[in-house]
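Chapter summary example.
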Amino acid sequence: MTLKGILFGACACCLTLLVSAASTPHRASADGLTVGDVLPKMKSLDVGGRRSLTEAPRQHYTLLHLWAAYDAESRAENVVWDQYFSARPSTQISYRALSLDTDSAVYHRTIALDQVDVLAQSCAPEGQRSELISSLGLQQGLHTYLVDAQGVVRAVDPTPQELTKYIK
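The structure predicted for these 168 residues follows.
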């Protein structure tokens, strides 16, 4: 076998691997949802007699922020988003926050300490937390999703500045 034959075989093998990898997209479930994904049904937001996110009459967009008291970054973002929507009421984007805390007492104490709007907050019911983390791919961290009226994710972890392009 010549050097030319070996190089040709190696190139053909690499090209085959590249083509097969490009044709079968694979995203680890731990990465979370991405733009274009459809939000799974969110029955856990039916807390306190409110309807779920996917069944409620909705504005054009909903910002769904997933947070927990044990995750300092997501907890701080919850306060930022609450203040943002309190200062700028929007008819086009509604704000919903879902706590993934395992203890409801921790959830209630945290929202009292953070002084956030209780009406925009929900806590995942016991027993559904791990299912939500799995279905939303949150094993590696919590996210904020901007979702349109059809449940399609339009932005992942947007900033307040990025939301302005969705407000007419």
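To summarize the output: The longest strand covers residues 61-67.
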